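Why do we care about 3D structure at all? Because function follows from shape, and shape follows, mostly, from sequence. That is the central idea of this module. The next example makes it concrete: a single protein chain, its amino acid sequence, and then its structure expressed as tokens.
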Amino acid sequence: MASSKPTIAFFGATGGSTISCLAPALEAGYRCAALARTPSKLRDLLTQRGVQESTITANLTIISGTATELEPVKQTIQMGEPESGSGTADIIVSGIGGKLLFSNPLSPTLDNPTICQDAMRTIITAVDEVNSSSSGTGKRPLVIALSTTGISDVQRDLPIAMIPMYHWMLKVPHEDKKVMERVILDSAKDVLGGYVIVRPSLLTDGASVGDLSKIRVGVEKSPAVGYTISREDVGRWVFEYLVKDRESQYVGEVVTITI
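And the structure:
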């Protein structure tokens, strides 16, 4: 692996969008660490995607735990080697999300209504504590966080026809994502080396569009408005345009992506 490649810590790695970024990163030789509640599940998912076992073993460290537990999160951003004194990962990719529950059809909620904000607070605290410790290097990572359209206070970023459905089905997760974004923005200057907040349109499990140039991209003041995008394409876009390009034009931006 070339020394110029950044190290990457992944949270929410078993999710469709995040694993679609992790898999190509491993295959391209990036040194990665991922937090997983069930490490064997993550390995199995990567193998099912065609990632060779030798590649996983060589390039990935999996830490067991959840994204709201400080110590496992610290181990993950330290690439599983806290004793090395190498500090934090260069890039943190977070695709944390909750599971929608429809036990009350009139008011869907999440299995954990504050999971995104709680996880991001834990990640920020972990970065700060590692960098403040005697073994820390003061390295400030770039945080790439997967959020959602439909929460902008600046410009409408979804089709008018989708507004009623978003308001009904996604009210609780949207509030969680909005708070998560504020946590990132509040920490950007003092703790982080930069951020990109990615707001994809409605996620699907469909096949990749193939050619990433077909993905339309906008920023919050001038968003790309569309109906859907596959989780596969979200992860692939993040890898190609954010991970591989640390000087990306989108650093410091809230980015919308859609088909």
